[in-house]
Write a structure and sequence with these properties.
By secondary structure, this protein is an alpha+beta fold. Among the domains are: 68 residues, P-loop containing nucleotide triphosphate hydrolases (Rossmann fold); 56 residues, Nucleic acid-binding proteins (OB fold (Dihydrolipoamide Acetyltransferase, E2P), Beta Barrel). The chain has four helices and twelve strands; from the N terminus they run ααββααββββββββββ. The strands form three sheets. The protein has a five-stranded antiparallel sheet with strand order 5-4-3-6-12. Strands 7-11-8-9-10 form a five-stranded antiparallel sheet, with no helix packed on it. A hairpin with a 5-residue loop joins strand 9 and strand 10. It is globular, with a radius of gyration of 19 Å.
Length: 204
């Protein structure tokens, strides 16, 4: 199937997606489904092939592609809003691994040992960033530049130091306002690291 739902409106697309899934389960045949809509791919596929300029970037189950993207292209293509990326270097502070660059965040034991290579790109998904108070000593300080309310959630565009910014996917209960100071926590177990060429770094 080559983008069979692309010309439908949003509501009908959701309905037809469900019908196609039911039909596929009844027929029980392997089906190749081409789409540029990541929601269709994630909800309908048992295995996903992500392609760029005619080349395969990653093959895996929806959760594998989402949780362990093989490069920065897949990381930013799959997920909405896309993964936040920051340039920097791997190092250590007080014997613990740390990422320094556009932002400075501690890393967990997965990244202990000699940092190879030292330059890297850190990625974190908007839904994994935790909102904290602006005075939280363990949080990165920032300022809310834009708030987009999306039903039960809101997307916060936050300006950080060193010319960096990120998108945070938060609950509407956060009740954020544009211009507010905010603190952001990046849980170490939710951090992804990539080489400067965009390839995923393997953790220990």
């Amino acid at each position: 199937m080559d983008e069979p739902l692309s010309n439908l409106d949003a509501l009908l697309r959701v309905e037809m997606r469900s019908e196609l899934l039911k039909l596929h389960r009844r027929v029980g045949r392997t089906t190749v489904y081409v789409t540029h809509d990541q929601v269709e791919a994630m909800t309908m596929a048992s295995r996903i092939v992500v392609m760029r300029l005619g080349e395969i970037q990653q093959v895996g189950t929806p959760i594998e592609v989402y949780a362990k993207p093989t490069n920065t292209f897949v990381a930013t293509f799959v997920g909405s809003p896309p993964m936040n990326l920051f340039a920097g270097r791997l190092g250590s502070a007080n014997g613990e691994p740390v990422f320094n660059g556009q932002i400075t965040v501690p890393l967990d034991g997965r990244w202990s040992g000699p940092p190879t290579p030292s330059e890297a790109t850190l990625g974190v998904r908007p839904e994994d960033i935790q909102v904290a108070g602006p005075e939280d000593p363990k949080a990165l300080p920032g300022r809310i530049d834009l708030v987009e309310k999306v039903g039960a959630e809101e997307y916060l565009s936050v300006v950080l130091g060193e010319g960096a910014s990120c998108i945070v996917r938060a609950s509407i209960r956060v009740a954020a306002h544009e211009g507010e100071r905010i603190g952001l926590r990046f849980p170490p177990d939710s951090i992804h690291l990539f080489t400067t060429e965009g390839l995923r770094l393997k953790s220990a």
